[in-house]
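Recall the central idea of this unit: under ordinary conditions, the amino acid sequence of a chain determines the structure it adopts. In this exercise we apply that idea directly, starting from the sequence alone.
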Amino acid sequence: MTMKYVLGNKTEGDGKHSPKGIIVLEDTTEYISYAPKEEIKAQDRRPFDLLVIINPKLKKRSNRSALFFEGCLSVDGFRAVVERHLDVEVTGFGRDGQPIKVDASGWQARILQHECDHLDGTLYVDKMVTRTFRTVQNLDLPLAEGCPKLGAR
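Accordingly, the structure predicted from this sequence is:
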């Protein structure tokens, strides 16, 4: 099966003739090196190579979740706390047109959810803990009283 087949013909499962969308993501050792070590550990952040998924379908694999600051170039210069599942499975098609399944946890699971949300027209600000929205320059300020603590729940 080729990518042209996936994009232009009936695909397995949902029977659509055109893609719902394509997500592209990676988290390299270089990107991770800019974050504080405590944050990397708390977020369970590990490098992974470029990943392309066509027509992604996401489902949670556990009820575990975590709250962390999240940002996006669509709302550049700002961050907010978002609760996300810690364990997800994403199925779809790879860039070679072959079926792909990704089991992800930690930060990779967060990125997959964030990117799949984009395909549904959802940004992190639609899911954020409202009182945590701030500029990147103010990330180190304490959370407002009553806001949930960062980390796994």
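The first helix runs from residue 3 to 8.
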